[in-house]
Amino acid sequence: MTLHDKLALPVGTTLDRFIMRKQEDFPYATGELSQLLRDIALAAKIVNREINRSGLIDIAGAYGNRNVQGEDQQKLDVIANIRFIRALRNGGEVCTIVSEEDEDMIQTGNVQGKYVVAIDPLDGSSNIDVNVSIGTIFSVYRRVSPTGTEGTEQDCLQTGTHQVAAGYVIYGSSTMLVYTTGNGVNGFTYEPSLGEFFLSHPHITSPQTGAIYSINEGLSNDFTEGVREFVAYCKQQNYSARYIGSLVADFHRNLLKGGIYMYPATRRAAKGKLRLMYECNALSFIVEQAGGKASNGQQRIMELQPQTLHERCPFFIGSTELVEKAEEFMAREYAELAEQK
Ligand SMILES: O=P(O)(O)OC[C@H]1O[C@](O)(COP(=O)(O)O)[C@@H](O)[C@@H]1O
Ligand SMILES: [Mg+2]
Ligand SMILES: [Mg+2]
């Protein structure tokens, strides 16, 4: 399919049709990844319905349990987790799931499944009950162990460069699904009355620079020197401070408008807060496919070798020039630390 044909794809193409057309690009494709993406879209529609009416029915508030991160689970965290796991299990393509809400790997029973999914079922939990945009984040890997057996930790702990697909759903003023399979980034808007996602943002590219910085400045007492100086630089440049407190929403805005989102290591949290497997890797794949950049302040996120399922890493993501600028300030900090040793 020529670029001209691709650009001729009418906006308003359904996600299903788009997936099918994309599959034609890969003559040896067997349709399993396409089916997996459809399973995720199905669960997203159901979760979207629950979110939209969460204020009306008794699914607001805390669930009463703590997850492996020590965070209070919200009812919607649990509902979203159940919905995505069920859709991926029933779809049959996924052998193992890594979820923010479960300490251990989840074996789906689909031993013939070729794929592993790492998922943050509900991102931005602190914003659930206050009608602020929240999301879902997912990464897809091809298993390395043979089919016919349960997935292993080795299947899950792959570097981000091994992702075959990644994406997020944003439940905001409209609900969108944005994803990549390594062939550019496309966004689809949900039309509830038709129950369909439609292509609304073809070939998303991120501006090389921007004038927005996103960081929780409430943590500034604990910022390290490099972060403190970069934030000061952003202010000197009269950049706008924007922080929603939902990673997906902050990332999505900066992806489209240009900007940088940061959740750095702080004096209290040496590895920051965000999780490599089901938050950072997926958004890094998306931003790189859109022409942006993602690092831990020093190294490319997607080259980090995960050691554990729920490990955290410092996160700097967005427009290339801004992330590189932040890395410059971080490099000075690391050099000073090295001199002090
Ligand atoms: O309240 P803080 O410390 O700024 O953290 C906000 C960040 O934490 C998160 O809520 C973590 O994700 P979960 O809600 O999935 O646990 C991000 O969405 C958000 O960017
Ligand atoms: Mg999250
Ligand atoms: Mg979450």
Q: In words, what does this structure look like?
A:
This protein is an alpha+beta fold and 341 residues long. It has 2 domains: 10-201, Fructose-1,6-Bisphosphatase, subunit A, domain 1 (Fructose-1,6-Bisphosphatase, Chain A, domain 1, 2-Layer Sandwich), CATH 3.30.540; 212-340, 3-Layer(aba) Sandwich (D-Maltodextrin-Binding Protein, domain 2), CATH 3.40.190.80. The protein is 34% helix and 23% strand. It is built from 9 helices and 15 strands. It has helices spanning 3-7, 15-24, 32-52, 75-91, 153-156, 225-236, 247-257, 276-289, 320-340, and strands spanning 62-66, 72-74, 94-99, 106-107, 115-123, 134-142, 163-171, 175-180, 185-191, 196-201, 212-214, 240-241, 260-263, 293-295, 315-318. The strands form 3 sheets. The protein has an 8-stranded mixed β-sheet, with helices on both faces. The protein has a 5-stranded mixed β-sheet with strand order 12-11-13-15-14, sandwiched between helices. A two-stranded antiparallel sheet has the order 1-2. Strand 9 (185-191) and strand 10 (196-201) form a beta hairpin. Bound molecules: 1,6-di-O-phosphono-beta-D-fructofuranose and magnesium ion (MG) (2 copies). One magnesium ion binds next to strand 5.
Short descriptors:
341 residues, alpha+beta, Fructose-1,6-Bisphosphatase, Chain A, domain 1, D-Maltodextrin-Binding Protein, domain 2, 2 domains, 8-stranded mixed β-sheet, 5-stranded mixed β-sheet, 9 helices, 23% strand, globular, binds 1,6-di-O-phosphono-beta-D-fructofuranose, binds magnesium ion, FBPase_class-1, FBPtase, fructose 1,6-bisphosphate 1-phosphatase activity
